[in-house]
Design a protein that fits this description.
Layout lengths: L3 H4 L14 H10 L52 E3 L2 E3 L9 H7 L11 H11 L5 E5 L11 H4 E5 L3 H8 L10 E5 L17 H6 L1 H4 L2 H11 L1 H6 L10 E4 L4 E4 L5 E5 L8 H9 L8 H4 L1 E2 L2 E2 L3 H7 L8 H9 L5 H14 L5 H12 L11 H18 L16 H14 L1
Parallel strand pairs: 5-8
Antiparallel strand pairs: 1-2, 3-4, 6-7, 9-10
């Protein structure tokens, strides 16, 4: 990862020196100046209803490059007195779109270059790379001018693959690579593991086959009881794949010799009860030797996994919902995040839903906020309305969680329905 100081070697957001670089200066003026907009031109296409530029121009002056709160860095844009007259308005460094000097001089066209320095930017780019093949609509017209044209038959949907994409496919290059690998760990209650078998095999043989009964979790317990190396490592279940490899054929763990992996325990919904509390224990208890051992605290064997979590004080950690949303916000799109937020309200009611809402509002409203025709109050109401739709399916309402004053009115719903149609 480059440091903000090194970003300046790649990206510039300032007017170049007119004397030393006259050609580059002319290209920046020609291709890389935004606006004018804002108070200088309220009719600019980039203006929103709140009279602000959707691209946040003019930017603030900055003496050095630094990381911002959004997806991209705040590039160096010094108040050095340089300016240029564009459409009868004086524009300075605050109006310069980030560019790479070499690319701009070579291709003589608008090329916005940004440093991809945060996961939000990766998520933004990912949507466009993997949205599917490029598509084109074309029309076939009959030679006879007076012939009635059936538009439904004549409009065809075609696929067009550009040369670089065709080459990538021909050579079978990987479209995506995960590094390090993520190992999904089994999660099941005692004697509730899945057992794969051939349909023609007798049921009695399946029941008596000890190998089929072994899972990642049961063998994790076995090694904690019998293996000195495992006992010395004192691992959590999710840390186990970093040191051991699962053999699917023999259904055993053996020591890892190379490679780096990350272990992730299969998710469990709070509504699943004991399975959910078992997962919670596996995330916090090191070197458990059995299901019974997980239920044991100071010699006392609890009657259920839920009771153990209460005794261990795991319920006192009241930031579970916050941690869940923080992790999900890194890779989930806003629509999925809103559904998760509703699920948390239903099944893992946080102590302060409004504080959780305020903290993750930006991630929950990321797609809605980009609709330039909505004001801030309308955006918040729209997001709450979408969350309320998920809650209604589960038999609740947003009003049940202290948001009753923020539910959008009927006229606003009509506006948003129209907006969705336009967006489609």
């Amino acid at each position: 990862m480059y440091s903000p100081e090194e970003y300046d070697r790649i990206v510039s957001a300032e007017l170049p020196d007119k004397i030393k670089s006259p050609y580059l200066f002319s290209l920046v003026i020609k291709c890389m100046l935004h606006g004018p907009c804002g108070s200088l031109n309220l009719k600019s296409p980039c203006m929103r209803q709140n009279h602000k530029c959707k691209n946040n121009y003019p930017k603030d002056f900055s003496e050095f490059t630094k990381h911002g709160k959004n997806s991209y860095p705040l590039y160096r844009s010094r108040d050095d007195g340089n300016s240029v007259m564009i459409r009868d308005h004086k524009l300075d460094n605050r109006w310069v779109i980030p560019y790479n000097a070499y690319l701009l001089a070579k291709y003589d066209c608008h090329i916005n270059v940004e440093i991809c320095s945060a996961i939000e930017a990766v998520k933004y780019i990912y949507k466009y790379i993997y949205k599917g093949h490029d598509r084109v609509i074309y029309q076939l017209n009959a030679e006879e001018a007076e012939k009635i044209v059936d538009e439904l038959k004549n409009f065809q949907s075609g696929r067009w693959i550009c040369a670089p994409k065709a080459m990538w496919r021909i050579f079978a290059f990987d479209l995506s690579v995960i590094n390090p690998a993520v190992i999904v760990l089994h999660l099941h209650l005692q004697d509730y593991q899945s057992m794969p078998f051939h349909e023609d095999r007798p049921l009695q043989d399946i029941i008596q086959d000890e190998r089929l009964q072994r899972t990642m979790l049961t063998e994790f317990f076995v090694l904690n009881r019998t293996n000195k190396q495992t006992q010395d490592l004192n691992l959590l279940y999710k840390e186990f794949p970093q040191y051991f490899v699962w053999d699917e054929d023999d259904r055993i763990w053996y020591p890892r010799k190379r490679g780096q992996v990350i272990g992730r325990i299969t998710t469990a919904h709070p509504i699943e009860g004991e399975r959910y509390y078992l997962r919670m224990l596996l995330m916090h208890v090191r070197r458990p030797k059995s299901f019974t051992d997980l239920k044991t605290v100071n010699g006392f064997i609890a009657c259920s996994f839920k009771k153990v979590t209460e005794i261990r004080g795991l319920f006192q950690i009241d930031n579970g919902a916050e941690q869940c949303l923080s992790e999900a916000a890194l890779y989930k799109m806003p629509s999925s995040l809103r559904q998760l937020f509703a699920t948390i309200l239903i099944y893992s009611l946080p102590s302060s839903p409004k504080e959780l809402w305020d903290k993750f509002y930006h991630s929950l409203s990321e797609d809605i906020a980009n609709q330039s025709f909505l004001l801030e109050e309308q955006t918040r109401a729209k997001v709450l309305h979408l969350i309320d739709e998920h809650l209604q399916i589960m038999g609740k309402s947003i009003a049940d969680f202290g948001f009753s004053q923020s539910i959008p009115t009927m006229p606003f719903v009509a506006i948003t329905n129209k907006a969705v149609k336009l967006h489609e």
